[in-house]
Design brief:
Order of helices and strands: HEEEEEEHEEHHEHHHHEEH
Radius of gyration: 23 Å
Low-confidence stretches: 9-19
Distance between the termini: 53 Å
CATH architecture of the largest domain: 3-Layer(aba) Sandwich
Structural class: alpha+beta
Number of strands: 11
Shape: elongated
């Protein structure tokens, strides 16, 4: 009797594995037809029977096991009211953010860092400037701010060119503060307040593309270490409360 039960269990597990493989093949084939150049990071069964979670970058969608139906939206667990899709998005964002190098950012760090927040910023954005006005307040609370460039007007725009100047400055922090204050970077270069690195190849374009991959629609966009996105300006007092939760 025991051997029979073991055999039946093995058969069921084997059938489930085959079904999963078939479903993944169906889904990958369907996605290759929808978006041939898209690289899928993972395909796995979702908590909903017959529905599979597909992750690429920070994006999460769902497909039926036969690949015929695609669903965009969030799965909410009714018992706990937990957004399961947001957990997957956060994991995807974390992976994207981990691919960024801190040496390519403009970093304002306290003497002792308790928390790290990565901020996608546009130099001409009003609320980005408001956030930077409080940079000392964030640092005083132990929050390291790491700026990543996201000139929303796109490659070649005025904001993009300003970002390239900041990122190519010998002192990025000083150049960022000057730019956020609305002062002319060209004038500061002429007066010697800003000096530029020779043959600088800035990371601004790559960072802009990263922001696009994260589907960011506005700035500032704040990311916590766990991949959680906080859109828009948040005061130092409110941010530290959020980080402590």
């Amino acid at each position: 009797m025991k051997r029979t039960l073991v055999a039946m269990l093995a058969l069921l597990l084997s059938s489930a594995a085959v079904a999963d493989v078939d479903a993944e093949n169906n889904i990958r084939q369907a996605m290759s037809q929808l978006a041939p150049d898209l690289k899928l990071d993972s395909v796995k069964a979702s908590p909903v029977t017959g529905l599979y979670e597909v992750v690429f970058g920070a994006e999460v969608i769902y497909l039926s096991s036969d690949g015929k139906y695609l669903i965009q939206g969030s799965i909410i667990e009714t018992a706990t009211r937990k957004n399961l899709t947001e957990d997957a998005r956060s994991a995807g964002r974390t992976q994207v953010l981990n691919d960024l190098k801190e040496e390519d950012m403009v970093v304002f760090a306290p003497e002792k860092t308790e928390y790290t927040v990565t901020v996608f910023t546009d130099i001409d954005c009003g609320y980005c400037r408001k956030l930077h006005d409080e940079i000392d307040a964030y640092n005083a609370l132990g929050i390291k701010i790491r700026y990543v460039a996201y000139p929303r007007a796109g490659v070649g725009s005025t904001a993009f060119n300003k970002a390239e100047t900041v990122w190519c400055a010998d002192d990025r922090q000083s150049a960022m503060t000057i730019a956020k204050a609305g002062k002319s970077l060209e004038e500061k270069i002429k007066t010697g307040d800003i000096t530029l690195k020779e043959n600088c190849v800035s990371p601004v374009k790559d960072q802009y593309m990263t922001a696009r991959a994260l589907n960011l629609s506005g700035t500032p966009a704040l990311f916590l270490d766990n991949g959680e996105l906080i859109p828009g300006y948040v005061s130092a007092e409110r941010l530290i409360e959020r980080l402590k939760q």
